[in-house]
Write a structure and sequence with these properties.
The complex is a heterodimer of chains A (167) and B (109). With 167 residues, chain A is mainly alpha-helical. With 109 residues, chain B is mainly α. Helix content of chain B is 71%, strand content 7%. In chain B, strands 1-2 form a two-stranded antiparallel ribbon. Chain B starts with a strand and ends in a 14-residue tail after the last helix. The chains are: A mainly alpha (167), B mainly alpha (109). At the A-B interface, helix 1, helix 2, helix 3, helix 4 and helix 5 of A face helix 1, helix 2 and helix 3 of B.
């Protein structure tokens, strides 16, 4: 059962990833990315990461993607016309990407895992276990994250303000 | 190779990692060959998602919750990156008539 779920979700993710790259209209790329995120959230559930699953759907597939859709609605439907100035770019990048995939494949061949820790299956991945980790071991990174979000919000407001000389 | 016991069926850890590698590669392709800056940002999101999958997979394999916390942190960074990147994009498209990233080849304001 879990194997079938894995392969269906993996196929959806790969198809969505191809769609992100292949579609010429940005809105279709965004919707393909939503498909990838939903498929990945199913995989997170398989890997017993319930909290990450919920955050993936609510924050990522919900909020961040709606942000992208808003920007597309704001900028209008822009299509890519013709080819770029660098005509060899596609072939060169295909070569580099094949080398990258081969490198990661070679890494996966020689992988050796550490002995797993003895974790309670009913505790692993729950909201409680996430909270305990987040508020004890990773307290400082967690607090720094709030500063990061504040800086990002201020930066976005600064960038999107109306310029004084435009008025 | 190591297997994960999920609901009685055995899945290989390397399947998840291979899927993560494939998605990361697709994101790289998007960044390299697409010229619409919005699609480039979307491809970066795809790469971040692939990295998240690898983190959660290692977390499950080692039975250690830290990987999931890293994935949550990277989601936060991805959200901040999307917000600032899109704000820059909207500002660029508002001030100049640019078709794609090839038209933005100068840094002067």
């Amino acid at each position: 059962m879990a194997i079938a779920v894995f392969f269906v979700a993996a196929a959806m993710a790969v198809l969505g990833g191809i769609g992100v790259v292949a579609f010429h209209q940005p809105i279709r790329s965004v919707l393909s990315l939503v498909l990838v995120m939903l498929a990945l959230s199913v995989l997170f559930l398989l890997l017993s990461a319930q909290f990450v699953f919920a955050v993936q759907i609510i924050v990522y597939a919900g909020a961040v993607m709606v942000l992208f859709l808003f920007v597309i609605a704001l900028l209008g439907p822009a299509r890519e016309l013709g080819r770029g100035r660098l005509r060899f770019q596609t072939w060169l990048s295909a070569l580099f990407v094949l080398v990258l995939l081969g490198l990661m494949w070679a890494l996966l061949q020689g992988i050796q895992y550490r002995q797993p820790e003895k974790a309670d299956p009913s505790w692993f991945g729950t909201v409680q276990s996430i909270a305990v980790g987040l508020f004890t071991t990773f307290l400082y990174p967690f607090e720094l994250t709030s500063i990061l979000l504040l800086v990002a919000a201020i930066g976005a407001i600064y960038l999107s303000r109306r310029h004084v000389d435009d008025l | 190779m190591s297997t994960l016991d999920i609901g009685g069926s055995h899945l290989d850890t390397s399947w998840f990692l291979l899927l993560s590698a494939i998605l990361f590669t697709l994101g790289t392709v998007g960044v390299l060959i697409r010229r619409n800056p919005l699609v480039i940002l979307i491809s970066i999101e795809l790469m971040l998602n692939a990295a998240n999958l690898a983190l959660v997979t290692f977390s499950r394999q080692l039975q250690n919750i830290d990987g999931q916390l890293f994935a949550l942190m990277s989601m936060t960074v991805a959200a901040a990156e999307a917000v600032v990147g899109l704000a820059i994009l909207v500002d660029i498209f508002r001030t100049r008539d640019a078709e794609d990233v090839d038209d933005l080849s100068e840094l002067r304001g």
